[in-house]
């Protein structure tokens, strides 16, 4: 236990000091996107890993937050804090609506209804010019500016994403232990038993979806600040699937999996092209391998490695305990 | 809408329905018997289209291309089922994820092989070109009518096989109660493999037939997967008459929407899917899960 | 999928874990070395490069930074000028992307591959015609590949995105490729974004007049894809056509990539003389095929990329339906001008496996790259002061390109010639755009008074209408 804490502390220290020793490109273009994509994937981990509801609409919700921010700040010319409120409100509300629509669906049907909802929003965003800006989207979106500095300046943005990432991660871990979180996991494992215990299954599902929408919205705001614009491409089917791929590669049942998966994904797509044109195949194969052989994802593998390492160390350090005498 | 316009739009809807039926029927079969949501269905469609085009281009025969597409995608489907899906049989969500993974890899590999270009088919002259419908004096593409005829023929063949042959009875029994079928002593694994191959083969054949209506290029896999999903959800997964009825419904709705309010017509089919999933998840003809 | 289901036998897991551990450490190594590797890309060969096939727009997953060319480089080596090329080397526009790269290479070859003794190195990044990816790749070019200037992008919406991006990198310069949305330079332009090619409205100069006066059309309908570039094209056509008294009866807008035009064809009013069609590449093929099969009677008028050389060289029954369609654009294949002829010769010589005649995409990237290189030459390759000298010099660049004289207006937008064409069959059986009229010195407002022009507002799917044009300018 103590060793795990030590490792976590070391990791945290490395992350906090990264801008000091890491390359600028890595800080701004690898780790920062990994963080906010991780937050969006985290919303999926919450929903799917803990709640058993695999949704492909998380990116849609994130995108809606971006559209909300863009619409309020650009089209309506409102200040950034109203934009933030609007963005989060839109994402959360949409998630509530999605949740209500999908509440009776489970498993594969749930997955498909989220795809359908995602496609409805995509088509709407692509066609509607007055709010969504059509195919071009909303351009010239600016992140908030505080004390003369834009929040998307590389180091500031990195720390912002890191802070928000850690907060959301901590929140989800904490939530897992609360009565709500436990009920959610029970929902994943055996909904019927949960309802016989007197819990309102539908309510929990809708609440979980809404909460995941809020999380996705946070990620979506960071994303739209990073890009400075939003367009329907951000929420097309490919991008929706990307989030699922990220969460699965990292480990769907683990909160840290979302971030690990996002990091791997960003790394592969940024650098794999130096080695092969077929990096999508690489990602697809990795995804397949994980689903087939190690559904716990890289997190699970990392955990196994770590516990193996600990055991080996223990065995080496205290051989007398294992002589069987 | 004027009368000739109405007729044309309705014909467009019916011929599109025929296309949707041909594409979606494989998906329904696979789900009905194996309970697998094959999200690589679109990839099989596209692969069939590409392969069929290559064969037709090499040999000069469109028909040969179609037949080749049928066989090669059946084989692909067989490999998919035996190699990957069999080992995780029964875990619905995981199977769906595997098929997503396969579709990702397949799309990229096909892009590598055939590029992002558009490929036009050249069906035999007897079924191409325009046609004048006598009483209304409107022009209509002959090939689309061919697709309609083909879909009807396919539907009839499938109906015959399912209703009158022993294999058909087995398949219907497997759709109704898989465990019972196994208990009765029928080799369910072989049946699964066969059905997957058939379903996949139909997807590939649809790739050539459907690809000839417009053209084939990368991105068509996602498009036809979504179309199949909508049709099969609305009709009821695993129900063949459901697929036929839903294909007509979805296609007609789409075409009328396009004619009446083109800007937002794209949303309508997805909305239809959402409504059905929310209110009657088993679809029009399906059984409650 | 709960945790119980997810466990696997330890041995199997360890095997996989080992593999992934290797992958993880490889990534870590990459992290440590990123930015320090120097693997310079070789100068592109004179023959046309094969397009790097990367992720297609919709099917496989592609994150923010799906790249196409092998590049892990750090900045320009001393005595080197690095130019990034943004073009669609994938998807439906891949053919255009190839042409784009050829255009840049033609220009570079004219300068012997170097400016003031500094070698020119080209870095290619592929986009998929969406603003999102254009932005990402532009960032990659600037931040990771450390290019000095960018030539690109190819399509309209990408241009708008790059205009905005340019504003965030004032010490770098972006020169257009072929993106032709008018607003990129007309409204809210960026001081470091230069367009030596004409825009979608300018590309229509002369066509509306030709259709009204020579072809005798009075009533038309329009069909275009629903984004910025077709809006510019339709507006450009209507600006001339309506002022002469023509009428636009209906406007159809379809989402990009639409293949099934049956419903559009069905809703097309029958009492029109012609349909003005702006679709690209394969969409145009689909439309033309379907229109004929449905027995469509009205004539067709082409936008600049509807009957582009790529479309004319498509095989199949398309050919017969295309002959006689008028169109307009910045290039005309049978332009008798010697400057054009020698440029075409240079193209054929450098790219024997290219198209039979260079396309408008080759031209666009060529004139823009040439403009950039002339600017670089004027400052002797000095990029040291945050490129201020270069940008000042670029604004003053004017030269005689293969299609005539090109100079920039106050928004750094080109004023150049335009050509009206009609499709004809050449002596060897290939189709080409036959030149029927040259319009000289076309500017962004088509010669109309600027204040009235700007009062029309941004061109969108509902703006401008024929009535509004007649009201604003009188007919």
From TrEMBL, chain A:
Q: What is the lineage of its organism?
A: Bacteria, Pseudomonadati, Thermomicrobiota, Thermomicrobia, Thermomicrobiales
Q: Print the keywords alphabetically.
A: Cell membrane, Membrane, Transmembrane, Transmembrane helix
Q: Which PANTHER family match?
A: ABC TRANSPORTER ATP-BINDING PROTEIN (PTHR30482:SF17), HIGH-AFFINITY BRANCHED-CHAIN AMINO ACID TRANSPORT SYSTEM PERMEASE (PTHR30482)
Q: Which CDD domains match?
A: TM_PBP1_LivM_like
Task: Keyword check for Cell membrane, yes or no.
Answer: yes
Q: What is its main location?
A: membrane
| Taxonomic source organism | Thermomicrobium roseum
Membrane topology of the entry: Multi-pass membrane protein
Record-given protein name: Branched-chain amino acid ABC transporter permease
Pfam families reported for this sequence: BPD_transp_2
Instruction: Extract one GO molecular function annotation from the record.
Output: branched-chain amino acid transmembrane transporter activity
Q: Which parts pass through the membrane?
A: none
Subcellular location as annotated: Cell membrane
Q: Which GO terms describe its cellular component?
A: plasma membrane
TrEMBL record, chain B:
Predominant location category: membrane
InterPro entries, A to Z: ABC_transp_permease, BCAA_transport_permease
**GO molecular-function term, one example from the UniProt record:** transmembrane transporter activity
Compartments, record wording: Cell membrane
Annotated GO biological process: amino acid transport
Per the record, what is one GO cellular component?
plasma membrane
Topology in the lipid bilayer is annotated as: Multi-pass membrane protein
Q: Which CDD domains match?
A: TM_PBP1_LivH_like
Q: State the source organism's domain of life.
A: Bacteria
Q: Which Pfam families match?
A: BPD_transp_2
Q: Does the keyword Membrane apply?
A: yes
Q: Which UniProt keywords apply?
A: Amino-acid transport, Cell membrane, Membrane, Transmembrane, Transmembrane helix, Transport
The family line of this record is: Belongs to the binding-protein-dependent transport system permease family. LivHM subfamily.
Q: Which PANTHER family would you find in this protein's record?
A: ABC TRANSPORTER ATP-BINDING PROTEIN, BRANCHED-CHAIN AMINO ACID TRANSPORT SYSTEM PERMEASE PROTEIN LIVH
Q: What is this protein called?
A: Branched-chain amino acid ABC transporter permease
TrEMBL record, chain C:
Residue ranges the record marks as coiled coil: none
- Among the Pfam families in the record, one is Peripla_BP_6
The record ties this protein, via Gene3D superfamilies, to: 3.40.50.2300
Keyword terms: Signal
Q: In what residue span(s) does the Leucine-binding protein domain sit? A: 80-424
Q: What is the lineage of its organism?
A: Bacteria, Pseudomonadati, Thermomicrobiota, Thermomicrobia, Thermomicrobiales
User: Does the keyword Signal feature in the UniProt annotation?
Assistant: yes
The record's listing under SUPFAM superfamilies reads: Periplasmic binding protein-like I
Q: Where is this region: Disordered?
A: 35-70
Signal: is it a keyword of this entry?
Answer: yes
What is stated as this protein's family in its record? Answer: Belongs to the leucine-binding protein family.
Q: List the signal peptide residues.
A: 1-28
Protein known as = ABC transporter substrate-binding protein
- Entry's InterPro entries? BCAA_transport, Leu-bd, Peripla_BP_I, TAT_signal
């Amino acid at each position: 236990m103590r060793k795990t804490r030590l490792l976590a502390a070391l990791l945290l220290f490395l992350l906090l000091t990264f801008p000091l020793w890491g390359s600028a490109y890595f800080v701004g273009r690898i780790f920062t996107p990994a963080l906010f994509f991780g937050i969006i994937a985290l919303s999926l981990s919450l929903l799917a890993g803990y709640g058993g509801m695999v949704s492909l609409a998380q990116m849609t919700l994130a995108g809606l937050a971006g559209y909300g921010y863009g619409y309020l700040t650009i089209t309506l010319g409102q200040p950034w804090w109203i934009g933030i409120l609007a963005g989060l409100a839109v994402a959360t509300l949409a998630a509530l609506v999605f949740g209500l629509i999908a509440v009776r669906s489970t498993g594969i049907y749930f997955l498909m209804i989220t795809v359908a909802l995602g496609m409805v929003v995509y088509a709407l965003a692509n066609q509607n010019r007055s709010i969504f800006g059509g195919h071009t989207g909303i351009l010239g979106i600016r992140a908030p500016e505080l004390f003369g500095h834009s929040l998307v300046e590389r180091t500031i943005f990195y720390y912002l994403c890191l802070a928000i990432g850690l907060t959301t991660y901590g929140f989800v871990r904490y939530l897992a232990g609360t009565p709500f979180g436990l009920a959610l996991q029970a929902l994943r494992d055996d909904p019927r038993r949960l309802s016989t215990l007197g819990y309102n299954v539908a309510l929990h599902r809708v609440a979980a979806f809404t909460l995941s929408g809020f999380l996705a919205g946070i990620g979506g705001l960071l994303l739209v600040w990073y890009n400075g614009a939003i367009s329907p491409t951000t929420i097309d089917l490919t991008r929706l699937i990307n989030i699922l791929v990220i969460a699965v590669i990292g480990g769907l049942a683990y909160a840290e999996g979302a971030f690990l998966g996002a990091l791997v994904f960003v790394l592969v797509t940024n650098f794999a092209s130096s080695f092969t044109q077929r990096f999508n195949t690489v990602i697809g194969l990795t995804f397949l391998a994980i689903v087939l052989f190690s559904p716990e994802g890289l997190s699970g593998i990392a955990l196994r490695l770590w516990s193996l390492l600990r055991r080996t160390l223990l065995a080496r350090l205290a051989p007398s305990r294992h002589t069987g005498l | 809408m004027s009368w000739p316009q109405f007729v044309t739009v309705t014909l467009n809807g019916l011929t599109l329905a025929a296309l949707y039926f041909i594409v979606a029927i494989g998906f329904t079969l696979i789900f009905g018997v194996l309970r697998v949501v094959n999200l690589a269905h679109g990839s099989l469609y596209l692969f069939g289209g590409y392969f069929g085009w290559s064969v037709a281009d090499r040999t000069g025969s469109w028909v040969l291309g179609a037949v080749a597409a049928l066989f090669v995608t059946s084989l692909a489907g067989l490999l998919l089922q035996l190699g990957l899906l069999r080992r995780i049989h029964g875990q619905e969500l995981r199977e769906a994820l595997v098929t997503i993974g396969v579709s990702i890899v397949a799309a990229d590999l096909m892009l590598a092989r055939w590029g992002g270009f558009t490929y036009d088919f050249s069906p035999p002259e007897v079924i191409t070109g325009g046609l004048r419908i006598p009483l209304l004096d409107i022009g209509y593409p002959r090939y689309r009518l061919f697709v309609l005829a083909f879909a009807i023929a396919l539907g009839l063949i499938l109906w015959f096989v399912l209703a009158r042959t022993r294999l058909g009875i087995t398949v219907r029994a497997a759709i109704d109660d898989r465990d019972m079928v196994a208990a009765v002593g029928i080799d369910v694994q072989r049946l699964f493999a066969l059905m997957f191959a058939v379903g996949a083969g139909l997807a590939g054949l649809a790739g050539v037939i459907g690809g000839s209506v417009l053209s084939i290029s990368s991105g068509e896999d996602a498009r036809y997967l979504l179309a199949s999903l909508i049709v099969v959800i609305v009709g009821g997964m695993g129900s063949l008459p459901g697929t036929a009825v839903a294909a007509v419904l979805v296609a007609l709705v789409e075409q009328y929407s396009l004619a009446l309010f083109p800007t937002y017509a794209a949303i309508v089919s997805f909305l239809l899917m959402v409504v059905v999933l929310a209110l009657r998840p088993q679809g029009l003809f399906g059984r409650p899960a | 999928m709960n945790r119980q289901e997810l466990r696997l036998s330890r041995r199997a897991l360890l095997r996989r874990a080992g593999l992934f551990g290797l992958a993880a450490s490889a990534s870590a190594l990459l992290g440590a070395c990123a930015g320090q590797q120097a693997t310079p890309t070789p100068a592109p060969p004179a023959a046309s490069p094969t397009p790097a096939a990367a992720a297609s727009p919709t099917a496989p997953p592609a994150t923010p930074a799906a790249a196409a060319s092998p590049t892990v480089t750090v900045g320009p080596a001393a005595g080197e000028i690095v130019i990034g090329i943004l073009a669609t080397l994938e998807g439906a526009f891949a053919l255009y992307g190839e042409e784009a790269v050829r255009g840049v290479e033609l220009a570079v070859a004219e300068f012997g591959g170097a400016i003031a003794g500094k070698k020119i190195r080209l870095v290619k990044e592929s986009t998929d015609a969406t603003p999102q990816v254009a932005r990402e790749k532009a960032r990659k070019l600037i931040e990771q590949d450390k290019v000095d200037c960018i030539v690109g992008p190819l399509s309209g919406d990408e241009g708008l995105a790059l205009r905005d991006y340019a504003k965030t990198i004032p010490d770098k310069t972006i020169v257009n490729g072929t993106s032709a949305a008018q607003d990129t330079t007309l409204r809210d332009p960026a001081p470091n974004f230069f367009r030596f090619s004409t825009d979608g409205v300018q590309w229509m100069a002369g066509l509306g007049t030709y259709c009204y006066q020579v072809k005798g059309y009075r009533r038309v309908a329009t069909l275009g894809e629903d984004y910025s570039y077709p809006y510019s094209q339709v507006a450009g056509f209507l600006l001339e056509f309506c002022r002469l008294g023509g009428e636009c009866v209906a406007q159809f807008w379809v989402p990009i990539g639409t293949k099934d035009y049956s419903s559009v064809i069905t809703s097309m009013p029958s009492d029109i003389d012609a349909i003005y069609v702006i679709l690209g590449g394969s969409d145009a093929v689909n439309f033309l095929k379907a229109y004929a099969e449905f027995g469509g009677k009205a004539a067709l008028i082409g936008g600049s990329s509807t009957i582009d050389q790529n479309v004319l060289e498509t095989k199949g029954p398309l050919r017969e339906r295309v002959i006689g369609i008028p169109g307009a654009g910045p290039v005309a294949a049978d332009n008798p001008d010697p400057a054009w002829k020698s440029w075409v010769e240079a193209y054929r010589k450098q790219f024997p496996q290219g198209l039979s005649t260079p396309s408008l995409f080759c031209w666009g990237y060529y004139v823009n790259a040439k403009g950039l290189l002339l600017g670089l030459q004027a400052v002797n390759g000095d990029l040291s002061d945050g490129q201020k000298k270069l940008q000042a010099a670029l604004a003053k660049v004017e030269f005689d390109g293969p299609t005539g004289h090109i100079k920039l207006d106050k928004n750094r937008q080109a004023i150049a010639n335009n050509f009206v064409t009609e499709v004809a069959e050449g002596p060897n059986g290939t189709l080409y755009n036959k030149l029927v009229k040259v319009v000289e010195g076309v500017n962004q407002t088509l010669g109309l008074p600027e204040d009235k022009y700007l009062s029309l507002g941004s061109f969108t799917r509902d703006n401008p209408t024929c009535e509004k044009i007649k009201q604003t300018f009188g007919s």
